[in-house]
Amino acid sequence: MRRLSVLLSLVSLVLVVGACGAEPAPAPTTTAPPPPTTTPTTPSAVGGLSPTDAAYVQLAIPQAESALPLLDAVRARAQDPALAELAARAGVGHRGELTDLHGVLTRAGLTYLGEHEAHDMPGMITRDEYQAADRLTGAEFDAEARVLLRKHFEESVAVARSELEAGTDAGLLALTRDLTESRADYLSKLSIP
């Protein structure tokens, strides 16, 4: 059900971004159309990003941001040193990804809309989930953190797959592949004792 929710949100964002970036039909002309370019473009592209690209960035940013409070808490408080080290690496990685994702929007001349902030969507660690985990200590805190981080990493990979399958921007696709690989690495190290 939550995956359906994220897909519906992604589709609605694609429609909104597509509508915002739609250009009026050109006036009829008697001259021949220009020759095709070697760079594929879509008529609904916005700032060089396809609607899928733009929708993915608008969702990936809050998804990564939602994990930062928990990653910071785990780094500081985890009883398991391996979990604390993983959280430290993931925190640095997420902050780098956020810089890059905002850079994609800037390059395209787009603004981050923040439409999904604080939503309870797959891959997002909600404020309530974070606060519930933060009240725990010791092994209980570590166990709940593992559950939340696993869900976050898995769902962010699922959302990234949509971009990898339908996105068109080469730079964003490379960033998304890196993000997917880092999440797979984090998952492989997220042991459950």
From TrEMBL:
Residues of the signal peptide: 1-21
Coiled coil regions, renumbered to chain: none
Pfam families: DUF305
Lineage: Bacteria, Bacillati, Actinomycetota, Actinomycetes, Pseudonocardiales
Transmembrane segments: none
Protein name: DUF305 domain-containing protein
Keywords of this entry: Signal
Boundaries of every DUF305 domain copy: 53-187
Top-level lineage group: Bacteria
Bias kind Pro residues: ranges: 26-38
Chain residue ranges for the region called Disordered: 26-46
